[in-house]
């Protein structure tokens, strides 16, 4: 698989994700397939700019993680290809404490096409590789081979007495090093429009119109707007989310000013803007 490098590279990069997976499946007793789905959703959100999400979730106690896990499974229902729109009773915020902007089920439903595509890509290229049936795939003591682990009851990291080698099809274990210094960055494929799209969020009850958004971007960065999409809502419900497609991706660093997201005040109304960024393989801070 181009750009992924060896399986061991992948396992080492996603060490914290594997620890959290083992904690949730082992000591918390959660279904491994459901945990894998939740992890794929959280990794997708990290790509959208909600950085350090896994690290934050791992720092919480089991009760809080369970609540976030249940919300993740609910969010997944709204990004499925045939998902029904959320009801008015589903308008409450989700993942409270993790984000500093309003996020609810409507956010996932509105962005479902993009999110589902990214979710499935992450599931196939990451989660299916690093998570086993009942435990995360580990790296042996030599740091050179992936091994299957079996969690003991109530454990988060116990190994079986005779771990078996795991080599998913198409990926070989390295022969002399646990990291490939010449490996390409982990940058999943994306469409040209993805690289020019920004996700927009409005304060609840204070939406921005398409014209307001176009005028704001044009006034600050010139003729850079190709199109703006605003959430379609039921009568009496105001939009909270949108997307803007720019004429070139080169303007995005100017909008974000070096940050993962930007917050603006437009006509006395708050506007959050963020971009999809594939995760890079390398040392985490």
In short:
This protein has 285 residues and is an alpha+beta fold.
Oligomer: single chain
Q: Round the mean pLDDT to the nearest integer and report it.
A: 81
What is the overall shape? globular
Rg, nearest Å: 20 Å
What are the defining features of this structure?
285 residues; alpha+beta; 7 strands; globular; disordered C terminus
Structure description:
With 285 residues, the chain is an alpha+beta fold. It has helices at residues 7-13, 15-27, 32-48, 53-58, 62-77, 105-110, 112-130, 210-221, 252-256, and strands at 138-139, 146-147, 197-202, 225-230, 241-246, 261-266, 269-275. Strands 4-5-3-7-6 form a 5-stranded antiparallel β-sheet. A two-stranded antiparallel sheet has the order 1-2. Mean pLDDT is 81; it is low at 1-5, 153-189 and 280-285.
Helix-strand blueprint:
Layout: H1 7-13, H2 15-27, H3 32-48, H4 53-58, H5 62-77, H6 105-110, H7 112-130, E1 138-139, E2 146-147, E3 197-202, H8 210-221, E4 225-230, E5 241-246, H9 252-256, E6 261-266, E7 269-275
Antiparallel strand pairs: 1-2, 3-5, 3-7, 4-5, 6-7
Helix pairs in contact: 2-3, 3-5, 3-7
């Amino acid at each position: 698989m181009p750009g992924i490098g060896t399986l061991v590279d992948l396992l080492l990069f996603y060490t914290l994700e594997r620890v959290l997976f083992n904690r949730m499946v082992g000591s918390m007793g959660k279904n491994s397939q459901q945990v894998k789905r939740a992890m794929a959703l959280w990794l997708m959100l990290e790509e959208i700019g909600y950085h350090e999400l896994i690290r934050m979730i791992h720092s919480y106690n089991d009760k809080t993680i369970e609540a976030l896990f249940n919300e993740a499974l609910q969010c997944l229902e709204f990004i499925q290809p045939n998902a029904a729109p959320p009801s008015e009773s589903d308008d409450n915020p989700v993942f409270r404490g993790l984000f500093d902007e309003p996020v609810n089920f409507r956010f996932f439903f509105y962005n479902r096409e993009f999110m589902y595509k990214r979710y499935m890509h992450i599931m196939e290229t990451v989660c299916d590789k690093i998570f086993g049936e009942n435990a995360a795939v580990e790296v042996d003591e030599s740091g050179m081979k992936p091994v299957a682990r079996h969690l003991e009851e109530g454990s988060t990291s116990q190994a079986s007495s005779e771990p078996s080698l795991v080599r998913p099809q198409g990926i070989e274990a390295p022969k002399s090093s646990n990291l490939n210094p010449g490996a390409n960055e982990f940058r999943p494929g994306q469409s040209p429009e993805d690289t020019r799209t920004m996700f927009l969020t409005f304060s609840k009850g204070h939406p921005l119109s398409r014209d307001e958004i176009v005028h704001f971007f044009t006034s600050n960065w010139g003729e850079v707007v190709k199109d703006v999409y605003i959430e379609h809502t039921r009568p009496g419900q105001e939009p909270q989310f949108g997307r803007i497609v720019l004429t070139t991706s080169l303007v995005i660093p100017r909008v974000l000013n070096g940050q993962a997201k930007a917050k603006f005040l437009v006509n006395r109304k708050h506007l959050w803007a963020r971009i999809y960024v594939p995760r890079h393989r390398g040392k985490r801070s």
